[in-house]
Structures are given as C-alpha cells and as structure tokens.
Amino acid sequence: MNNQQIVLASRPQGEATAANFRLVEAPLPALAEGQVLVRHHYLSLDPYMRGRMNDSKSYAAPQPLGEVMIGGTVGEVVDSRHPGYAAGDAVVGMGGWQLYSVVDGGAAGMLRKVDTRLPLSAYLGAVGMPGVTAWYGLVRIIAPQAGQTVVVSAASGAVGSVVGQLAKARGCRVVGYAGGAAKCAYVVDELGFDACIDYREHADARSLARALRDAAPDGVDGCFENVGGAVMDATMLRMNAFGRIALCGMIAGYDGQPIPMSWPQLILQSRLTVQGFIVSEHMGDWPEALRELAAGVAGGTIKYRESVAEGLAAAPEAFLGMLKGRNFGKQLVKLV
After folding, report:
1. Thinking of the domain 2-125+304-334, which architecture would CATH place it in?
2. Residue ranges in the chain assigned as alpha helix (H)
C-alpha cells in the first residue's frame, strides 16, 4: 500500500509559495512490534507551521527539507501491534501532511484516543491544540476577573474564537479584531463577543486605538495577541495599569520581516506584563483545559467554525490562504 505525503521542497525567500511544497508517494512500511498504523481523516493547518519552514532560531527545530510537513491529525487506527490500540480506535496525533502515519504507540504524547461522541475535526480545533492554547493564555497568563475587559486579535480564528467565549463565561467584556464585516458579525452575533473591530477599515494603529476606545471605554485589562504590528500597538495604547498580554502569535511577521513596536515605553508606563508562551511546554495543564473545552463543545456553549479543503493536494494552497486570512475559523484538510 502506498502513502501520499507533502514534503517541504524548499525554504521560502520572503512570502511562502506553493513551490515550497512537493507531493510525493511512498510505500507504507510493515509494522514493527509496538507500532500503530493510522489513516488520517483530517489534517490541521496552523500558523506556527510557517515559522518552522524557516531555517532560523526559534522555539523548535526547523522543518527538515525533503521530509513530511509537521501537522496535527485526527483519524482511525487501521492496524496495530501495540496492546493499547486496536483497529477502529479514533486517535489524534501529529501525523503530518500525509494520508497515513506509522506511530510508536508507546511514545509519550504521540497518539491519544478520543471520544467519538464529539466530531473528530473538533480535536484539531476547539478541543485540541488551538483550544488549549486559548485556555492557557487566558486562564494562566491573563487570569481575568469578572468585569474586566479582554481584547482578542484574530478573533474569528481557531484560537481567538475560543479565547473570547471562555472570557465571556468568566464574566468579562470581550472585544475582538477581525478582517471583514462577515467575520466581525460572526464574532459578535454567534460567538457572543461584546464588540468587534474590522481592522481593514483602519489605516494605522491610532485609528484602531480610537475604535478600541469606543468599544472598550474602561480600557483593556487583558490582551490575547495573535497578530502583532499595528493591532498590538493599538491595544497597548488602551491598556490599563498592570494589564497582561498573552503573546501567542505574530502572524504579521511570519514572512520573516521585522515587526516594529511603536510605543514600547507603554510596557513601562503602564507596568504591563507581556508573556510569550508555547502550549506544548505546558502539558500538565492540558487535562484541565480539555475537560472544560470538551464540556463546552458538547453542551453547545463553545461554538466553532471550520474551513475545510478537500484532499491532500489542496493543503499547500489552503495553508497559504490561511496565512492571508482567507479562511473562516479553523483551517482543515479533509483526507477521506
């Protein structure tokens, strides 16, 4: 049996393109003792992958050239030589951009069985890494109190949408940034944010800050930052004393260009806490986060939206579109 895979063919010079990827076919190896064969149903596409494509210093090693692109997957065990897994088990893991993966069933964190009462795709979004990212940044870093104001950039995305809903459940006023009227309407009308600012309607950080002043008249106590650049500058202009910024992503700079910070003195003047974090470094918090997220999705109090590309060959263009904000919610690739 053959396996289709997408490998990193070359490193981007500036903006990533479809030419940086290559679709290949390879035979599936026979299973060794302790291994599990998984057929992927969905592949997750996430902004962090763009950083891994660069050969530069970061929190993780660069994606090797000629090897299968890294990525979260959810699917079904089709064969197993490990006592903990059986054919038919639904599992989530880091299978990468390919139809099948052979996994060491005993390796910590490589594979996890999931409850099929929830949609499988949810384990790559609201009840997966993006959801836990949202939970950790909000609960452990921003740690908001009821009545405080939390601002979320990329509010309609897989992470930002969950941040806002968790903050509302904790009694906060929540303001989002999103690109376009349709996304802003979704953020307010379906996700329950108090307000949403369409960043495309504003030419610079000061214009964004004026809109934020109207949406958050009492200032901002917590910021969940996914974008950087002018959006973050605008939020910093409205931060209250001792505000907390959970720095999750900087999608404004994923092409490798510097991201200036216009008023870094505000960190001092407002005594702000700015903390970057990588959710995989906080595995001890995952069980508590996943319990709340799964209960919220099952009960309908955490809503999510997905953009689904069809077939492995569509993954590169879907990934590039996500980096441009063309997706609406969690970007997935359906593989079955």
Report:
1. Alpha-Beta Complex (3.90)
2. 48-52, 129-136, 160-169, 181-189, 205-215, 229-237, 265-269, 286-299, 315-323
